[in-house]
Design a protein that fits this description.
10 strands; alpha/beta; homodimer; 13 helices
């Protein structure tokens, strides 16, 4: 396995969601090898303490490093928030989370300086997005809303139901009344609701999908460090999980956009 | 700690939900000491494999045994389904899960032999309820529906919202058309939706709350084994979690019905 996965981009998440990030990276950089790890035995991270999330994240990073990855992408908002500094401290290859790229993109898009952020309870309660946005520009008003029903809604596949519109309305009403012009999807599951959210805002709002902007970020970092894969071959994709590979493969294709097969490993 | 908790009933769940069971046990047996363990670092169990759930459950049982509990109540449907046999094998005190008591109560209540079962994906996919019901009585028709949005709905506290009625209708419509006369709430979170579910069925259906029937079961087992606490003092209640004790205390009081404070322990 090591031989095939050398020179890969290592991407991890607590479970499935990060596959939307992996999808964007794969789309933008089709010649790169990707190793994805989903911590399905311990998902979700959002309800766990910072110490626990850091511990789990470092275990995964060590697993990816053992496969000689050239870069780490933390495709999980909770881990990006709690663990990125510890990870950077401990390894000597480039690392990115999904928060910084989303924040920078939102800052470059907003015109009325009103940005909405949606995410899980953990992400919103951590204030990570609003702190990072206001650290860059104090004039910006940030409206943050936790939307804990969105993840099970997406996993249930209720992407075209009326109830989904009602739940979106329930959660996003205050953002609409606040006249935000930009919204950050601060959870890797949310891109699957992008159409409905766009519709709710009548196409008047810039929707920031962290996966897409993180992929651009990854490309830049690899280019700057002379680490881009020069091969013309299609990159190899490997998926590892800590539990239930079958279910991951089944549910994951919705997130990744094409068939995947996963291998279970113990950490 | 050991001194106080000897002669206690040990109750565990992957997280908060089992508190509805603990509440019922405490109500029926107010003089019993209870030690509750919520595995908040690894919640939920429903998306994990049987081997993983068994491993985690045995770790918790060992923790409870180290506090000299006289009985184990598995207040988690997933663990009741996957781990109860392994637990019974390994210890020599009485053990009950939440499934058996719910099944027996439903069998005693139904008149038209049509029973509905609702639960998480894991519980429903395991077919544990329908197998156990039909093992007792082949004439019974079981209608099982997974309702994965109910847990986040309850944790969000949306107990009185219109959306909750819509989601209940979406999930339970087929049970209504099937004219069930009895429904098992096969998840320890669901008793918080009991009022809305009763209303949806226009009070025409027996609602089986596993917590309540498990409490009766616990009382019977303790009585039969001469293990009931003869003290007239109010029992002591201790709550342990594997992560985030503060949040557990905060959210848990809704489930337990009165204030609780939790202590974090490593397993």
């Amino acid at each position: 396995m090591k031989k095939n996965t050398t020179n890969s981009i290592g991407i991890f998440d607590s479970g499935l969601g990060g596959l939307t990030v992996a999808k964007s990276v794969n789309k933008l950089l089709p010649n790169e090898n990707i190793i994805y790890f989903g911590d399905t035995a311990r998902v979700p991270y959002g309800s766990k303490s910072p110490e626990t999330v850091i511990k789990f994240s470092l275990e995964i990073v060590n697993f990816l490093i053992s496969h000689n990855v050239k870069m780490i992408v933390i495709a999980c908002n909770t881990s990006s928030s709690y663990a990125i500094n510890k990870i950077i401290e401990q390894i000597n290859i480039p690392v990115t989370g999904v928060i910084e790229p989303g924040v920078l993109e939102a800052l470059s898009k907003t015109k009325n300086n009103k940005i909405g952020v949606i995410g899980t309870n953990a992400t919103i309660n951590s204030n990570i997005y609003s702190n990072k946005i206001r650290f860059q520009n104090k004039k910006i008003k940030v409206y943050s809303i936790a939307c804990p029903l969105f993840v099970p809604l997406v996993e249930e596949g209720w992407l075209n139901k009326k109830i989904t519109d009602s739940i979106i309305q329930e959660y996003l009403r205050t953002l609409k009344s606040a006249s935000i012009d930009t919204i950050i999807l601060g959870c890797t599951h949310y891109p699957l609701l992008e159409k409905k959210i766009t519709k709710y805002f009548e196409k008047k709002v810039n929707i920031i999908d962290s996966g897409k902007v993180t992929a651009k970020y990854v490309k830049n970092i690899l280019a700057k460090n002379g680490l881009l894969n020069r091969s013309k071959k299609k990159g190899e994709l490997s998926f590892f999980v800590s539990d239930m590979p079958y279910r991951f493969s089944e549910q994951g294709s919705n997130f990744f956009g094409s068939e995947i097969s996963a291998v279970r490993v113990d950490l």
